[in-house]
Design goal:
By secondary structure, the protein is of the alpha/beta class. The protein has a single domain, classed as Rossmann fold, CATH 3.40.50.1820. About 45% of the residues lie in helices and about 15% in strands. Strands 1-2-4-3-5-6-7-8 form an eight-stranded mixed β-sheet, sandwiched between helices. The termini are far apart.
Amino acid sequence: MELRCSNIITRSPIFFRFLVATFLAAIVQCCQPPSETDAYTSYSINSKIYYQDVKIDYNLCGSGDLTLLFIHGWCIDKGYWSYQRDGFCTDYQVITFDLPGFGNSDSQREEWTIEQYSQDVNSIIEQLNLENVVLIGHSMGGDIMLETAVSNNKIIALVGVDNFKDVGMEFDEQLKEEINGFLEVLSNNYSEVASAYAEGALFHPATDSMVVERVVGDILKADSVVAINSLGNLFQYTSVESDKLSKLQQKLYLINSSNTPTDTLALANSGVSFELFQIEGTGHYPMIEKPGEFNIVLRKVLKEIEAKLELR
C-alpha cells in the first residue's frame, strides 16, 4: 500500500501540487487557540441554527458595517479561526461556524458536497439577516465560498486562504483514475494514509512539531466517512473552479503561503478579478502559523473593501 500511494504522487507532479493545495484542507496551530469563551464574553455568543434539520454551531461577536464570515477547511472546526475572531471582533461583526460533519455541528447527512456546504452558508446568511458579507475561506472553504458567492448578492468580496493555486488544471482520465485510487487507499486505511500525507505534504520545514502533532491528531479523530466523502467531492469540484470563477462578480483576494506556487496566469485566464498576497515561511495554514502577519494582511484587505464600499 505504501508503494501504491507513493506511485500516485511520483507519477504525477501536478497531482502532488494538487494534493498540497487541496488535500487535508485544514488544521495547524502554533499553540492552543483561545477557547470560544476566553475572549469577548461580554458580547460574544455561541449558538446554533438549523438547516434541513441539521444543527450548525456558530459563534458571533462584534459589530460593524462589514460581516466577516469565516469558513474552515477539512477536518477542523471554527476554533481554528480564533486568532482572527479575537483580532477583528472589535471592528467588525465576526461569525465562525462548524461545517456539518465537523466540530459541534451535526453529522446526520448523506451528502457531503461543496454545493451542500454552500447551502449551509447561504442558510446562515439568511437566518442571521447578514448584509455586506465578506466570505473568508481556508482551503476547501475556498470552493465553498466560491459556490456561495456566484448566487448571493449579499456577498461583497471573497478572501481565499491558501487556495485557488492550480485553477484550470485538466482532469484527464489518468488523473481521475489516480484520484479514485488514492481515495480507495484512503478508505481502506484512513488513519495511516491520512496521517502520512499530513506529515509529508502540509508543512513548511520550519513548522513546529507541536503543530504537526495537533494536525495529525485532528485528522485521526475526524469521522472518516465524512472526511473521505467530502474530500472526494472537493476533488470533483476543483475541475469546475475556473468556470465558476468566470461567473464571479465579486473580487477575490488571496492570502496564500509561498511554500507552494500560485498559478496567477491561470487565475487571470479565468477572468476573475483577483489580488494575491503571499506569506513566507509557512505551510498550508498561514492564518495559524503566522497569525500576527496574517491578520495584518487581512486588515489591509478589509480596508480596501471598505474603501470601495464607501464609493457605492
